[in-house]
Amino acid sequence: MKVNFTLNGRAVAWNVEPGTTLLEALRAKGIVSVRNGCDGEGSCGLCAVLLDGKQVNSCQLLAAQAQGRAVLTVDHFSKDRGLSVVQQALIDAACVQCGYCTPAVTLALHELLERSPEPSHDEVRDALSGTLCRCTGYEQFYNAARIASKRLKDPSYAEAAAPEFRPDLRHVGKDREKVDAAALARGERAFVEDRVPADACHLLVLGSPHAHAFIKKIDISKAEAMPGVVKVLCKDNCPDLVYTTAGQGFPEPSPHDQRMFPRKLRYVGDRVAAVLAESLEEARAALAAITVEYEILKPVLSIADAKAPGAPIVHHGDVSYVVGEPPAGSSVKGDGRDDPIIYQFPLHADPHRNLAASVSDGIGDMDQGFAAADVVIERRYKGNRVQCTPMEPHVAYAKIDGGRLVIHASTQVPWHVRRIVSRVIGISENKVRIIKERMGGGFGAKQDIVVEDLAGYLAWTTGKGVFYRYDRREEFAASRTRHGMEITVKLGAKKDGTLTAILMRLDADTGPYGQHCLTVPMNAISKSLPLLLCDNARFEVKSYYTNLSPAGAYQGYGAPKGSFALQTALAELAAELGMDQLELIEKNRVRSGSRIEILRSLGEGRPGSPVTLGECGLGDMLERGKTAFAWDKAKPSAKDAGLSEDWKIGRGGVIIQQGSGLPGLDAANAEIRLLADGTLLMLSGGADLGTGLDTVTAKAAAEIMGLDMADVSVISGDTDITPFDKGAYASSGTYFSGNAAVRAAEDLRDKCLAVASGILGEAVKDLKIAHRGLIKGKRGEISLAKLAHLAIQGEGHHELSGHGNFKTDHAAFPYGAHFAQLAVNERTGEVKLLRFHAYQDCGTPINPALAMGQIYGGVMKAVGHSLYEELLFDDEGRPLNTNFLDYKIPSVFELPDDFRVELVPVADEVGPFGGKSVSEIALNGAAPAIAIAIHDAVGAWCREWPFTPERVLRAMGRL
Length: 959
Fold this sequence. Notes:
This protein folds into five domains: about 1-170, Ubiquitin-like (UB roll), CATH 3.10.20; about 195 and about 390-480, Aldehyde oxidase/xanthine dehydrogenase, molybdopterin binding domain (Aldehyde Oxidoreductase, domain 4, 2-Layer Sandwich), CATH 3.30.365.10; about 200-355, Alpha-Beta Complex (Aldehyde Oxidoreductase, domain 3), CATH 3.90.1170.50; about 485-660 and about 810-955, Aldehyde Oxidoreductase, domain 4, CATH 3.30.365; about 670-805, Aldehyde Oxidoreductase, domain 4, CATH 3.30.365. The strands form ten sheets. Strands 8-12-6-21-18-19-20 form a seven-stranded mixed beta sheet, with helices on both faces. By secondary structure, it is α+β, with helices and mostly antiparallel strands.
């Protein structure tokens, strides 16, 4: 059928199939600025268009409904690659992180400003209410709306998006436009889906309907014979090896326990079969033609189930070790029907008893520590499963180019993808190229190789282009969740609050496979326990297999749950002692010069060592929070907050920490080239998730080489072009990849000065690079442009480039203090977050406004986890809320009225320009701060998150 309408001011006539949505029609015509984040549910708002001037979701409209109407996409405002007032305001307010939602937000604000040129706060909130964003935390969108509104009257209007730092530097610590922000704001081709040609084949997977089952019989013959089908895979014709999907350095601290198509299915959604077909419709038809007979087994649906005597065994294959021996008394001989498990080195595991990994250690004498205490408490805390929910689901496009496999991937770890995929396929790494495209959010879920193994294998074996994208239901059920954890904390203290002993026992639910099974729960310990000084401290960690959805990396990497347990337990101890909780924190926290002995027991896969802390800003941050919340005065009443007498006000404050990469384990590399006109090309191995890492590396180059940001272009995360980098995880981007860029720029600077010395006839020590790209000596000068020209014109010099590598044993800890004020309805159990302040030390903030945006986003994710996000399962292990209507993530309505981020820089001596990490720490404070505030309001301790109304009422004894 033909549809006639106006698209971005031009009349068009399109032939579309009946039933085609407007979203599908637009993307088929190359309008890639409309995004698909919810697969037609209409809940995410990322496919927004303006229809006759009104914002609508194009996934909810048939293309035929555009007949005779005017449709605008963000492309309308980006003619000739320009930017509208709104687009530029979003950039200037640092609202463009991953950029996946930016076109939709742009349209929402355009529509708003058309009808209300000076919108109120409530009008902005209402305009943005239909658009979900997981990166930004929404707060800076209000700033963008204000900037755009004022510029409509005064085009020269400007305001600072963040405070400035390091006045001695030109770019570092200052607001500079994010290097990819304009392209993302314009909705240009940037993401994997934008690279897929029309003739690509479509890959779909048949997921298990059962949480635990053997495949007794599978028949794929009918599917193989169907029109358009290229290949059908199942357990009988896939590579026969096990591997881990964890994107970690080799040898991985995760068991190799996953087969491309397992012989035994271990969760609802586990791979049963896959169809590659020439069209999506043909793939769907073939998938429906596959018949399977299952032997259904009893599922393991909790940690308690996994630990129970005689429990069903999730992994019952043979167990072997590449290095080391199995623990005494563990079982290694398995059921021949199941797939084997291979440990690269011992993790103190016993898989046939569902124990995937374990570790215990500590310092001091626990018996003496508790014996010396005047008060001893023991509490148990539980954190349930939450989903990462990047707005762009897992997606890959794989093809053959020049006899090599090329995968366009939305991944945090391109080099780990290359290594694992090459091993799965059975080819050498030089035959594989991974191109990390812009990512529509990662948050840890894309540290795993979730789709690339299967897409790569089918592309290599068929020679076809393969497009594989999880739909939103698959993203919830088969992607990666935060590990469920149960943590028991036992504390001993003197009457004056001095801690005498700390014991943390942690049981983790790693799900059906063991990716990150030890490192995530260990991080819950290593990013919480070192905050407190105590001579006697011990931890015991066990990680269990279950038949729930796969767990893995998620921003914070276990630390949010460790922080929740220990900080809440500390507050409970304060209550037992009759002390103010912040007074107890102050008495026992680390501070400048503290020697952190527990770190000798917390090495990453090797013995650790104590660390003497340098500068620590916790005291300053605590004082700022206490002042802002008038901590020493009576808390406000419900009436002060405009609430009825059913509501009670409470407040809480906590301290938090994270790391900056993995000292002694990971490495990053960068290369920088001086081009013929004196500009620079930075080749960074780092993987920018939307956090601004490419902007960090560009700033490093511009700062050191005396140039402007516009003089630096960045290519990153391409395994053919850029040098090796461990990937974007463990809060390592700025510290590792940023430092590599600094060293590469310094190497280039030194080479330029050496060459200029010969040309100018002056000593290197008498030369310096001045802005803008001018090498000056005592007698002469030469521009970088002229130097580069001479270098490549055969004047006796070579092309000038710099190389940088960074690896360190130095541990850099960012710290923070988070404060919450809320109201609890005593009758309903509802919790309203009224105020939240995050005081954060990330060293020198390289990109201050972007750092603040990451903190806002991290806090709001943590608020969601604390109050309402939870992945639910029925008694057969089926996930129940696999969409955005049933699994609620924060919208703009959930922001507290007083939401503040303050950067409190405490420079690190090793970090780039004094920088430390910021990407994960912001998730560690909300849960304990809110739990403590709930107790302050109604006297009830909530020890299981999320703190739903039912759980709050139960804690109050009213259910």
